[in-house]
Amino acid sequence: MGDEVLTGIAESTGLDMEQVEALKKGFDGFDKEGTGTISQTTMQMILKSMGVKVDKDELENYAAEVDEEGSGKFSITQFATVAARFMMEDDEEQMKEELKEAFRIYDRDGQGFITTDVLKEILREIDSTLTEDDLENIIEEVDEDGSGTLDFDEFQEMMMG
Questions:
Q1: Using CA atoms, how far apart are residues 84 and 80, in angstroms rounded to an integer?
Q2: What is the pTM of this model?
Q3: pLDDT at 1
């Protein structure tokens, strides 16, 4: 299978090439007869072996969406499409946890919010090229009610877009 197919999979699923190559390796390892397809059970085993949390009902729903002929056999592209749904959820959950931790660190007094001044500090750490005007514009955008503070939801919304 050519790189252009893997690149196409990466573009259509939102996974990076490293993730697509890992899926391909797992797929090839289980496609012993070289049929170019694997079963749904195999799909679940590959994902679990990669440390991806898989909900069986969700897997069945996602698999049914890509298995239009109802063959129960999945190509690498179909497998990657299903896998991406679980892998993206994992990434998002992990990011939320990391954001919660960061928020806790900056919410020094445990009040459930950070001030816009603290937010400016965070933004400067992330991108030292931001000007005072840039920072003011960002603050204006995220502190919609003009309270001078951000709760976790506003912080998360800003960081995750």
A1: 6
A2: 0.61
A3: 56
